[in-house]
């Protein structure tokens, strides 16, 4: 439908939250109003490095696009160099995360190109959206140090920061929260069910979570645990240790492909835990909390922006103590008094904001997500 489409939507890594955002957006639009270009959510490093060239060949040469919307995986500056006809569009980029503060063990382990592409993409964009204030602040604050890694002929990073800040705003992820899942299963109120719903990769720090639940097990606490999330080819060794030691306590171990089964599982769980070292919004955490789980999150990253003080922990030992107390009293895991403002954090409000930025607020009606206060 490129002949009539005004909106060009590009997602080089069409999976996870990136797919959720695109699917939510286009579901509100008439099919004739947008043209969608996606690449599979595989080989992230190559998508970040090289997708602009492939995508430049997919986008039709004849078009009537007025707006371009993409995520920060794409090197927007590179795409515009390859397709100068797109430079006149209103170019909007959405940051699910930023690479300037991706956790690495040593500076030499950081791939400079990923962060550099994100900086130049911002400079090439007309508007830049970040999924949290933490994402925006951390990106801007890291630019001087990051660009200072260059050995000579360094750009003026403060001018760059000012330029990016002037076109940036926070737009929370327009997460469409599910209805509370009716289920025929009877929830076990006598045994704590702990959920860890994250990618099985080092930036989510599964080692800390696994150490904590192994210690709970060794100290004879009674609980069940579900370790969810996408599983990749290189699984951290500690997962195998958990599988062996806690085999009788594990309810689900690995990715749940059915979204409804996933929601049903969260609906039956008691507490959801994050140990992340790299998080800018946390789709899976908010979904779990919406479905009744009590959140325990580290006092860092985006979490203090979203969750109240009573949900935050500072150390691994504090996490252990909180979970041990909950094991002794599962009924204490009541999140109904946390007062999370779901209507601001997810659903209709950020979706309307996104549509307004794209110049589409008057062209579509937004169905209510059912979101409200916790």
Write the layout of secondary structure elements.
Blueprint: E1 7-14, H1 16-27, E2 34-40, H2 44-58, E3 67-71, H3 76-82, E4 90-95, H4 112-124, E5 127-130, H5 133-147, H6 157-166, E6 168-170, E7 192-197, H7 206-218, E8 223-228, H8 237-245, E9 250-253, H9 259-268, E10 271-273, H10 283-290, E11 294-298, H11 303-306, E12 312-313, H12 316-328, H13 342-345, H14 348-357
Parallel strand pairs: 1-2, 1-3, 3-4, 4-5, 5-6, 7-8, 7-10, 8-9, 10-11, 11-12
Explain this structure to me?
- This protein is of the alpha/beta class and 374 residues long.
- It folds into 2 domains: 7-176 and 346-357, Glycogen Phosphorylase B (Rossmann fold), CATH 3.40.50.2000; 192-332, Glycogen Phosphorylase B (Rossmann fold), CATH 3.40.50.2000.
- Helix content is 38%, strand content 16%.
- The protein contains 14 helices and 12 strands.
- The chain has helices spanning 16-27, 44-58, 76-82, 112-124, 133-147, 157-166, 206-218, 237-245, 259-268, 283-290, 303-306, 316-328, 342-345, 348-357; strands at residues 7-14, 34-40, 67-71, 90-95, 127-130, 168-170, 192-197, 223-228, 250-253, 271-273, 294-298, 312-313.
- The strands form 2 sheets. Strands 2-1-3-4-5-6 form a 6-stranded parallel sheet, with helices on both faces.
- Helix 10 links the parallel strand 10 (271-273) and strand 11 (294-298).
- The chain is globular.
Provide a short characterization of the protein structure.
38% of the residues lie in helices and 16% in strands. With 374 residues, it is of the alpha/beta class. The model is unreliable at 365-374 (pLDDT under 50).
């Amino acid at each position: 439908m490129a002949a009539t489409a005004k909106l060009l939507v590009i997602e080089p890594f069409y999976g996870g939250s990136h797919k959720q955002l695109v699917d939510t957006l286009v579901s509100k639009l008439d099919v004739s109003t947008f043209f969608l270009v996606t690449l599979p959510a595989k080989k992230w490093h190559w998508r970040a490095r090289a997708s602009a060239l492939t995508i430049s060949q997919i986008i039709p040469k004849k078009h009537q696009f007025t707006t371009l919307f993409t995520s920060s995986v794409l090197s927007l500056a590179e795409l515009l160099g390859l397709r100068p006809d797109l430079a006149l569009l209103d170019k909007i980029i959405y940051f699910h995360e930023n690479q300037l503060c991706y956790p690495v063990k040593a500076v030499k382990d950081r791939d400079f190109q990923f962060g550099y592409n994100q900086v130049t993409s911002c400079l090439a964009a007309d508007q830049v959206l970040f999924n949290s204030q933490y994402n925006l602040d951390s990106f801007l604050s890291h630019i001087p140090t990051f660009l200072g890694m260059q050995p000579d002929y360094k750009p003026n990073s403060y001018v760059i920061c000012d330029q990016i800040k002037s076109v940036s705003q926070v737009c929370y992820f327009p997460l469409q929260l599910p209805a509370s899942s009716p289920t025929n299963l009877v929830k076990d109120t006598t045994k704590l069910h702990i959920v860890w719903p994250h990618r099985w990769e080092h930036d989510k720090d599964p080692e800390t979570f696994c150490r904590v639940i192994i210690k709970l097990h060794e100290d004879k606490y009674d609980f069940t645990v579900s370790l969810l999330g996408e599983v990749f080819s290189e699984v951290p060794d500690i997962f195998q240790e958990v599988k062996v030691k806690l085999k009788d306590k594990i309810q689900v171990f690995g990715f749940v492909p059915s979204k409804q089964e996933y929601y049903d599982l969260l609906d039956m769980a008691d507490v959801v835990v994050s140990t992340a070292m790299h998080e800018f919004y946390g789709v899976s955490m908010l979904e779990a909390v919406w479905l009744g789980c009590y959140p325990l999150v580290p006092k860092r990253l985006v979490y203090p922006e979203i969750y109240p003080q009573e949900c935050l922990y500072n150390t691994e030992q504090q996490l252990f103590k909180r979970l041990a107390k909950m094991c002794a009293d599962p009924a204490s895991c009541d999140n109904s008094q946390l007062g999370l403002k779901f209507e601001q954090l997810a659903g209709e409000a950020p979706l309307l904001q996104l549509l307004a930025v794209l110049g589409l607020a008057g062209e579509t009606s937004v169905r209510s997500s059912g979101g409200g206060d916790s």
